Amino acid sequence: MDMILFLTIAIVVFALAFDFINGFHDTANAIATSVSTRALKPRTAIYMAAIMNFIGALTFTGVAKTISKDIVDPFMLESGSIVILAALISAIAWNLITWYFGIPSSSSHALIGSIAGAAISAAGFGILNYGGFLKILQALLISPFIAIAGGFIVMSLFKVLLKNRNLFKANKRIRYLQIGTAALQSFTHGTNDAQKAMGIITMALIAAQLQTGDDIQLWVRIAAATAMGLGTSIGGYKIIKTVGGKIMKIRPVNGAAADLSSAMIIFGATLVHLPVSTTHVISSAIMGVGSAQRVKGVKWCVAKKIVLTWIITMPICATIAAIVFQILDLFL
């Protein structure tokens, strides 16, 4: 019992660390466009994002329940606590590596791939809940394409609405709109991303037989929301630089269109209890907006590097988690 309690406490600490890192790793995506167009100063944008992330994290729990039971059944794992700890170590390592190099990779892919890899390492492929796992994979894979289409449509509508307007005056006014869209973006980020750590902690509590249902306890919600908010307040300037300028040259109208379309998609996923990659959705929305503006205006070489990172994240994290599990299992 002492070892189980120790592992559960370690999981809670690492899950909150994951949420903290997720905060400064992924918040950059939510505020990158508003910072790059100078609608908001970086520090102001980060503080606003921290508050909105915290509020969003406390508002919903559906995604957390999906994470806690749809990838693997925690009741079926004999070494459940070690599996979860190995998954967290793997996801945190990958997030720090990609943050260091300024690559906007997916924390969601990292975490979900890590859970699957550690669970398979512990009990074989039969341990996966294939129905739920495939549903999550479909959401992760389809959402970027929806975001590209959404960004293209919203930007096309903006072009029609602003057709006969003075571009300089319009951009000046749209900067004020960007403040609202950046706040909305940060709120939706909290509603989806912060819940992943909540789901992990709930899995650990079930595996340790400290709770029997999949309800997300209040202290778990507050702790995860706080960790996300604190991480957000640190900011991720390297990723802001990549998302906010290296994919395409962003003007206020482009930023507002990207924020609005991606926020709608992320929030829609939250409402149907599906985890999506906010990184994928926001970056894809920017590509869609750029395509509506001018296809050649998108720096597709940078976009290809981002897409390549998306593709390799899940298998790499699954492999790392599988290795970490075997090491932890050997000693614990």
Automatic annotation (TrEMBL):
Stretches of the chain forming a coiled coil according to its record: none
Membrane-topology descriptor: Multi-pass membrane protein
InterPro entries, per database record: Phos_transporter
Transmembrane segments: 6-24, 45-67, 79-103, 110-130, 136-162, 218-240, 260-286, 307-328
Keywords recorded for this protein, A-Z: Membrane, Transmembrane, Transmembrane helix, Transport
Record's subcellular location: Membrane
Superkingdom classification of source: Bacteria
Location (main, coarse): membrane
PANTHER family: PHOSPHATE TRANSPORTER
Protein name per Swiss-Prot or TrEMBL: Inorganic phosphate transporter
Species of origin: Sporosarcina saromensis
Lineage: Bacteria, Bacillati, Bacillota, Bacilli, Bacillales
